[in-house]
Specification:
The chain is an alpha/beta fold and 358 residues long. It is built from 13 helices and twelve strands. The protein is globular, with a radius of gyration of 21 Å. Bound molecules: NADP nicotinamide-adenine-dinucleotide phosphate.
Length: 358
């Protein structure tokens, strides 16, 4: 089955996604009956591109990485899109049976826009949406999910929390009839790495600088250290898993700073661990708070670039998911896993193992 994609945002995550699609071309075709083409790409500063037969996205990724603009690579005879929504409309006009908008623009913590507009535009045009941006699920989950359901398309966002490690798909696809009562987790890599370094006697600024150098910290590092990224994740988790209707601005929020060093060292001396914990419970305000945890607490053992989330459920007790370090590949994989989740939902059956070419 042909799947045509429009990438809205072509930064680190989307470029890695384009390469992962190329690397996984054969299993996608043979096991999931997915012949994926990227037909449109939109960026903020690097222009737009379209080809009705599919773009060479890996070559375009190299071109953008060398500072080039997408328009310079536009094939003759193909219409150059003039806006993000134009890219979505060009995708919607494709004859492919599966049309998916992949949204990976930068998180806007003020109101989640323009990512929400891109998701809404895609749904209105009858396209499925996958996104790694926290904004849509954190600011407008109910509305977007309702709209997607009424249009019969998918709105998936596995990459919004803990990269490609399944959280939303885990609950949705593998925990039928389970009610999630609460969650608590260490979900921001930058702050957890910094706290771990502070525990071992390092200073705040070099630890932050290292995370920025690694490309892990958000472009605006205050999003991480002031707790906004964790608040956006807490809002998304609360909206999706706890049936809340909150935004990151409703989350009770705490961040970290140079003064956290003494608190982290004091906790360690007392045999405890300081962690920035995102938590939520049904009918209660989600929060992001610095907590001194007993050494036996699973979250106390989550150090460095590791993340973990504990779900408290009615039928399965506590379920913990741990990610021992993540990078762009995991986030790109989240988009891929959402794409396959959409394909699995379609009434046209997947090939059986016997049909698969080795
Ligand atoms: N990096 C990670 O490990 C990670 C992990 C989980 C989730 N995420 C989320 O995934 C998303 C992408 O992250 P990233 O690291 O790829 O960010 P990035 O490298 O900064 O790329 C952002 C992309 O969005 C484009 N963009 C920004 N504003 C736009 C607009 N108004 N219209 C069209 N395009 C626009 C940028 O274009 P220009 O460059 O031309 O301005 C760029 O191509 C973010 O929401 C982030 O929070 C990232």
């Amino acid at each position: 089955m042909r799947a045509d994609l429009a990438l809205i945002g072509f930064g680190n995550v989307a470029r890695r996604f384009a390469r992962v699609l190329a690397e996984k071309k054969d299993p996608l075709e043979n096991q999931y009956d997915l012949n994926v083409r990227i037909v449109a790409i939109a960026t903020g500063q690097h222009g737009h591109a379209f080809h009705s037969d599919g773009l060479d996205a890996v070559r375009l990724a190299q071109h953008v990485e060398h500072g080039g603009a997408l328009e310079a690579m536009q094939a003759p005879g193909q219409r150059t899109p003039v806006s993000n929504l134009d890219c979505i409309e060009l995708l919607a006009a494709s004859s492919a049976p599966l049309k998916v908008v992949v949204e990976t623009t930068t998180l806007n913590i003020r109101d989640g826009r323009p990512a929400i507009d891109h998701v809404e535009g895609a749904i209105s045009a009858g396209c499925h949406v996958v996104t790694a941006n926290k904004g849509p699920a954190a600011f407008a989950y109910r509305r977007l999910d309702g709209k997607a359901r009424s249009k019969g398309v998918a709105f998936l966002f596995e990459g919004a929390v803990m990269d490609g490690v399944p959280i939303f798909n885990l609950v949705r696809e593998t925990m039928p009839a389970v009610t999630v009562e609460a969650f608590r987790g260490v979900v921001n890599t930058t702050t957890n790495y910094i706290i771990s370094m502070l525990e071992s006697g390092e200073e705040f600024e070099p630890a932050l600088a290292f995370m920025q150098q690694q490309g892990v910290a958000e472009a605006d590092a205050s999003l991480d250290i002031d707790g906004w990224d964790a608040a956006a994740k807490a809002a998304a988790l609360a909206n999706v898993l706890l049936a809340a209707d909150v935004t990151p601005h409703d989350v009770k929020r705490e961040g970290i700073g140079p003064a956290t060093r003494e608190a982290a060292r004091a906790a360690l001396r007392a045999g405890r661990r300081l962690r920035l914990v995102a938590s939520g419970r049904r009918h209660a305000t989600p929060q992001v708070s610095l907590q001194e945890l007993a050494a036996v607490d699973l979250l106390a053992g989550v150090s460095g670039t590791a993340n973990a989330l504990v779900l408290q459920t009615d039928l399965l007790g506590e379920v913990a998911v741990t990610q021992l370090g993540g990078d762009l590949t995991q986030t790109a994989y989240a988009l891929l896993s959402d794409l396959v989740a959409i394909r699995r939902r379609l009434p046209v059956l997947l090939p059986t193992p016997a049909d698969r070419t080795p």
